[in-house]
Design goal:
36% strand, globular, 154 residues, alpha+beta
């Protein structure tokens, strides 16, 4: 059973380990050493937990991942980062997870996110959930992020 709870700083070390595992392949592929979540210091993750809307994802009583949501004002939210431990990936949890996150914000008018240009699996996943490509931006010579938007109630 999947559930979502606000993260606590006591969960930061476990969350960081899962985040590193989840984004390791992207680091190797895109060489985005400055921005990749693998290189995030624990102090920065703790600050995010304290300052932003950060969730711990639980599956059957175990910490399975995390989600970082940003309130951009005026009913607009950014799904800044979502990550699941590899043992829970490709098992159907992602769709339930995104629906759970969106349900936390019933007054949301719009959601935005970005994902790497080569990750066609993510593209298909988000498009299946109603997200539309809106553009792209370059991070470095190897990494282009595809920008997505989802209008709610449309």
């Amino acid at each position: 059973m999947l559930s979502l709870k606000r993260s606590t700083i006591h969960e930061a070390a476990v969350l960081l380990d899962i985040q590193k595992e989840a984004f390791q392949e992207d680091l190797i592929t895109y060489e985005d050493y400055e921005t990749n979540p693998v290189n995030e210091p624990i102090e920065r993750l703790i600050k995010k937990i304290q300052l932003f809307i950060h969730y711990t994802i639980w599956i059957d009583g175990e910490i399975a991942g995390g989600a970082d949501v940003r309130d951009n004002g005026d009913g607009k939210y950014r799904l800044n980062r979502v990550f699941l431990s590899k043992q829970y990936q490709n098992k159907g949890f992602g769709t339930e997870l995104i629906h759970l996150i969106e349900a936390q914000f019933p007054l949301a008018k719009e959601w935005v996110l970005d994902t790497p240009h080569l990750n066609t699996r993510n593209h298909h996943f988000y498009e299946k959930l109603g997200y539309k490509r809106q553009g792209q931006h370059h991070v470095n010579h190897k990494l282009i992020l595809i920008d997505y938007v989802k209008k709610m109630g449309v």
